[in-house]
Amino acid sequence: MFVTFEGGEGCGKSTQIRLFERYLKENNIDFILSREPGGTPLSEKIRALLLESKSEMSAKTEFLLFSSARVEHVENVIKPALDEGKLVVLDRFYHSSYAYQGYAGSLDLKDIEKITEFAISDCKPDLVFLLDISYEDGMARKSRDEKLKNLDRIESKGKAYHDAVRRGYLTLAEREKERFVVIDATKSAEEISKIIISEFEKRLRKGN
Ligand code: T5A
Fold first, then answer.
1. Residue among 4, 5, 13, 71 to mutate when testing ligand 1 (max atoms within 8 A of CB)
2. Calculated CA dihedral for residues 56, 57, 58, 64, nearest 10 degrees
3. Which domain holds residue 148?
4. Which of 98, 112, 124, 202 has its CA 20 to 30 A from that of 169?
5. pLDDT digits (tens, 9 = 90+) for 81-125
6. Taking the complete model, does pTM exceed 0.70, yes or no?
7. Could you tell me which of 105, 37, 114, 28 has the C-alpha nearest to residue 70?
8. What pLDDT is attached to residue 48?
9. Which CATH number do you get for residue 114?
10. What was the pLDDT predicted at 206?
11. Is the CB of 68 under 6 A from ligand 1?
12. What pLDDT shows up at residue 208?
C-alpha cells in the first residue's frame, strides 16, 4: 500500500507523519518513510537546489528538477519497496507538482501531467491525506516556530500563489475522490491523527 501526505505550508504534515510513524511501529507494520523532493542522495541534492537557491529559476526548470528528483526516488526507493510488499509513506509526491507548479504556477497542467506520467511509470498512491489549511493560518504557525521562521524559495512566493495551491489541491481531491481524504488541518494534532489512522485502517480492511 502506498500513502502520501499533502498540503500547503504549515499544514502540519511533518507532525502527522511523526504520529503515523509511531502508530505503525507500535503495530509492527513494515514500512518505509521518505519525502519529496528528496529520498535519494541525488534527489536530496536537487532538493537543495530547488529550495535553498535564492536565484530565480524558470517555471520549466523548477518543474523538471522536481520531476528528475522524482524519477530517482521512484526507481530506487518507492518501486523496490512496493515490490517487496512494504507500506510506503511519503511526505509529498507528484500531487505537490500538480498543485504548486500546475494550478498555482504558470505551466499548462496537461504538460505537467504528461511528464509526471512519464516520471512515475504508473506508481500512484492508494491513499492521499490532504491537510487543508488557509495561507494565513499556515503562515501564522510557521512564524511562531523558531525552526520554521526562515522561509525557503517556494514558501516565499506570497499569498496569491499559496491560495492557488490550496484551491488546486481541493480540485485534485474532487477529481480523485477515491484516493483523497481531505482533513481540516486546523483541528488539534491528536484529532487529525485519529482521523488518519481510522482512514488507514479502513483501507487496510478493504485490502487496498
Ligand atoms: N514542492 C514540493 C513543490 O513545489 N512541488 C513538488 O513537486 C514538491 C514535492 C517542500 C516545498 O517544496 C514544494 C512544496 C514546499 O514548499 P516541505 O519539506 O514539504 O517543502 O516543507 P513544508 O511543506 O513547508 O513542510 P514543513 O515540514 O516545514 O511543515 P508542515 O509539515 O506543514 O508542518 P509541521 O508539522 O512542521 O507544523 C508546522 C507548525 O505547526 C505546528 C507545529 O508544531 C509546527 O510548529 N502544528 C500545529 N499547530 C496547531 N495545530 C495542529 N494541528 C498542528 N500541527 C502542527
1. 13
2. -170
3. 2-206
4. 202
5. 999 999 999 999 999 999 999 999 999 999 999 999 999 999 999
6. yes
7. 37
8. 95
9. 3.40.50.300
10. 86
11. no
12. 64
| Ligand 1 mutation pick, 19, 65, 148, 150, max ligand atoms within 8 A of CB | 148
Task: State the Cα–Cα distance between residues 23 and 103, nearest whole angstrom.
Answer: 33
Closest among 157, 165, 52, 49 to 101, alpha carbons compared = 165
Task: Tell me how far the alpha carbon of residue 33 lies from the centroid of ligand 1, in angstroms.
Answer: 16
Mark the ranges of the chain whose per-residue pLDDT is less than 50.
none
Say how far apart CA 100 and CA 154 lie, in whole Å.
9
By C-alpha distance, which of 47, 72, 74, 77 is closest to 62?
47
Neighbours of 19 (CB within 10 A): 17
Residue 83: the pLDDT is 96
For the Cβ of 103 lying below 6 angstroms from any atom of ligand 1, the answer is no
Into how many domains does the chain fold? 1
Instruction: Please tell me if the CB atom of residue 97 comes closer than 6 angstroms to any atom of ligand 1.
Output: yes
Longest dimension (CA), the chain: 48
DSSP string over 93-141: -HHHHIIIIIISSSS-HHHHHHHHHHHHTT---SEEEEEE--HHHHHHH
Rounded to the nearest angstrom, the distance between the alpha carbon of 27 and the centre of ligand 1 is: 26
Residue 152: the pLDDT is 81
Nearest CA to ligand 1 atom 42: 12
131 DSSP β-pair partners = 7, 183
